[in-house]
Amino acid sequence: MRPFDYSRPTDAAAAVAEVSADPEAAYLAGGTNLVDHLRLGVERPGRLVDLRSLLDDGVEELPGGGLRIGAGTPNADLAAHPLVRRRHPMLSAALLSGASGQVRNAATTGGNLLQRTRCPYFRNPATPCNKREPGTGCSALEGHGRHNAVLGASRHCVAVHPSDMAVALTALDARVRVLGPGGERTVPMPGLHRLPGDEPHRDTVLEHGELITAVDLPDPPGGQRSAYRKVRDRASFAFALVSVAAALEVDGGRVRRVRLALGSVAHAPWRARRAEEALTGGPATEDAFREAARAELADARTGPDNAFKPGLAVSTVTAVLRDLAGEGDR
């Protein structure tokens, strides 16, 4: 591990100024992702700027409706918060499906959004990886590819985003509040995370030094039901092969409103716009759900190790929406 300097600024603005001025500086919050990378040699910052006493760590109702989640809120606290469980059960379920209880106690909302891929080639400094070292190549293209992306990938990177929480927030039209050297701005989800294109080393649209301070969620429409389902190789402490975050409102047997996001199929949480458009206003039937999911996965590109993924995604989307529609009929 490379030796590094450490500092604890007194407020968020001071932290932003310090990191923005130093290209080798990085933020430290819960550390559940960064500390792993320090040990592996994947990341080698020259300075760590500690945020743990600076960020809000609670959930509050906004005057105009909706919720504001402080970026320092531990994942465990967010999953258990009464307002989140009541209004956004999808988000609570996504958080509870991730990692272990100990990790959820330490991991923060802001850090969860910014966690980096678990691609084994990214995490192994001995192998070429365009995400870790641009221009060196992508070992996953010809290597073990069970978890590789099937949508939105490029010849430079086929890694997937690992966060469960980010998939739920993408389906919920969350807005991420960011503080940078030039002041505050808001980034919508989807929109925070990037597809790899020719710059796979850039996970998000944030510039160096910008800091996530909070996440805002709009109130859900009346009559909406939501769920999160994660399909993985084992029942706990495993990353998804495919995950689905869905919110559905059915009126008179027809889909009035649907929001759908997929995880572990792309470099970013994947908002399923094509499926949403196909379903809105149509019948809330299993056949309709399946056809819409197939349309969303029509452009999927697979390799020999992950050829199962599009079919698994279609089946999972169909099952989640069928269950939500069935709840609406009772």
Task: Describe what you observe in this structure.
The protein is an alpha+beta fold and 330 residues long. Helices cover 29% and strands 20% of the residues. It is built from 11 helices and 12 strands. It has a 5-stranded antiparallel beta sheet with strand order 4-5-8-6-7. A hairpin with a 2-residue loop joins strand 6 (175-180) and strand 7 (183-188). The termini are far apart. The mean pLDDT is 95.
N/C terminus separation: 57 Å
Q: In what range is the share of β-strand residues?
A: 15-25%
Summarize the main sheet.
5 strands, antiparallel
Quaternary state of the chains: single chain
Order of strands across the main sheet: 4-5-8-6-7
Mean pLDDT: 95
What characteristics describe this protein?
330 residues, alpha+beta, five-stranded antiparallel beta sheet, four-stranded antiparallel beta sheet, globular
Q: Helix and strand layout, with pairings?
A:
Elements: E1 5-7, H1 12-20, E2 25-28, H2 34-40, E3 47-50, E4 59-61, E5 67-70, H3 75-80, H4 82-87, H5 89-96, H6 101-106, H7 109-114, H8 164-171, E6 175-180, E7 183-188, E8 211-217, E9 225-231, E10 242-251, E11 254-263, E12 270-271, H9 273-279, H10 286-296, H11 309-329
Parallel strand pairs: 1-3, 2-3
Antiparallel strand pairs: 4-5, 5-8, 6-7, 6-8, 9-10, 10-11, 11-12
